[in-house]
Amino acid sequence: MKFKLPAAVVTFLNGWIFSLLVAILIATSIKSSLADWNTVPTGSMKPTIIEGDRIFVNKLAYDLKVPYTTTHLAEWGNPERGEIVVFYSPEDGKRLVKRVVGVPGDTISMQDSKLYINGKPLSYRYPEETDFYNFLVKDQYKEATIIEDLNNRIHPVLILSHPEVLSSFETKTVPEGKYFMMGDNRYNSADSRYFGFVDRKLIVGRATAIVISLDINNMYKPRFERFFERLP
Questions:
Q1: What's the total number of domains in the chain?
Q2: Which has the closest alpha carbon to 149: 232, 230, 61, 46?
């Protein structure tokens, strides 16, 4: 004799399962099109964003997309220099977090870790500036944090004292509909210096804050001092 659930129970379960599926669909649609958070597994944006940070991504910062696609329904803005954005790598499709350095029409170059945009150097503040020559020449491979002003967005970047291949590149012109991205960790970031310009449609949204931060090297201990920290 086969056991059968009462009709009322079957009706309840069917309704519950349907409601759950609808809720999941709504939640994933919101995550896909409106807002999301992004786990940062690498140090390419140090010291601004470090390994174990979970950052909030505003997917409505520039446009509205069809859920689960990169197709734009409407656009009301474009990324600006200095903003931190999440995008799909043109190389392998992975989601990356970098800073917008060049927008369409810009010319970009770098000499000895100093960025030039449209022929003008950015403003920098160095540690012990009067002794910066010794830092660059004598203290080989020493890491230093300097302060960069990019489009009035003042933020720290990491450089190495000894000149590296990543510390300089020749002038590039950003094509229409493309963007030049760089990590704040200037000597340890796979960015537009490697994979080239990023198409506008590959940009997911703007990263605005650190939601939570867990120390991946210390049993994922919470770093409460980084919770809800706005990104420069």
A1: 1
A2: 232
pTM of the model: 0.81
DSSP secondary structure code for residue 175 in this structure: P
* Per-residue model confidence as pLDDT tens digits over 136-191: 555 555 778 889 999 999 999 998 766 566 678 999 999 999 999 999 999 889 99
Q: Are 158 and 184 in contact (CB under 8 A)?
A: yes
CA atoms of 167 and 123, how far apart (whole Å):
16
Would you say residue 4 lies in a domain? Answer: no
CA gap 196, 203 in Å, rounded:
14
Q: Which two tokens stand for residue 14?
A: 């069917």
Beta bridge partners, 206, equal 58, 85
Task: Give the span between the Cα atoms of 180 and 182, in whole angstroms.
Answer: 7
Residues annotated as part of the active site: 44, 98
Cα dist. 209→78, 102, 113, 174, 180 in Å?
19, 22, 26, 27, 22
Sheet with 153-160: strands ordered across: 123-125, 143-150, 153-160
The owner of tokens 């995008």 is 87
Residue 203 sits in a domain whose CATH number is 2.10.109.10
- Cis-peptide into 156, omega within 30 deg: no
